[in-house]
Every structure is written in C-alpha cells, then in structure tokens.
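@channel sequence for tomorrow's demo:
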Amino acid sequence: MTRILYSLCGADESRPFSPHCWKVVQALHHKGLDFVEKPTPFTRIPDLEDGFSKTVPILRDGNELVRDSFEIALYLEDRYPDRPSLFGGEGGKALSRFVERFSQTIVHPMITEIAVADIHDMLGDTDQIYFRTTRRRFSAAAWKR
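structure tokens (generated this afternoon):
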C-alpha cells in the first residue's frame, strides 16, 4: 500500500514550502512509514481526492483520507501504535496541541507577514493571482519586501 501525502508547492514542485506539510513529513519519517509526496499548487488543491479538503496536507493511507497536520498526527498515532510514538502519551499530546495553537496564533502570523512576498514570488502565474486575492489582509509593506 502506498501512502500519499499531498503537500503545497509553488511553480517548482521540488520546493514544497508549507510548515504544516513539513510536520506531516517529519511524523511519517518518525513513524518509519513509506509515503509518496505529491506537491500541489494552491489552485489545484480543490481537485485533490474529489474535493476532500480546501487545504493541504492531506494524507491518503489506503482507503483512509485525513486532513490537517495535527489530525494526521493523531491518526498516525492511533493507526500505527507499534511504531515510535509521536507524543509519548496524553501529556505529550496536550503539550503538542498547546505548542501548535501558540505557534498558529502568535508565531505563524508574524512569519507569514514577513514571508508573504517571497511566497508570492515562488508561485506560478495562476497561483499568484489566487494568492494576492486571498491574502489582501497583509500590509502593503509586506508586499514590497
């Protein structure tokens, strides 16, 4: 059985750039699970797995589809308990959820503001249009970097 991880890429498929997808790549490696990564640009995500998710990462594991990096980690932990643990128990799971929420609300927005222009520049033409229209909330200064 081949596991498929759909991740995010720009015009260059060899440069997936989503930290959420990177978390899943690391979890799969930590569990020692084989997988194939399929980098996907923003505008192609709705076509994946019959529109299963509006975002990546998406993991196909046999007949199972799972979205969201933390949900994928929980799935991997439950599905493969014989492999090395990602959390080391309930305390580790709670701490991981805390760190994820902290980074999502405090760290990630600041980094995104810094990187928004660079992300835009690495996208293909169609995705650049999509990205600009969906990221208008970022300051004008962020776009001029």
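heads up for whoever presents: The chain has one domain: 3-108.
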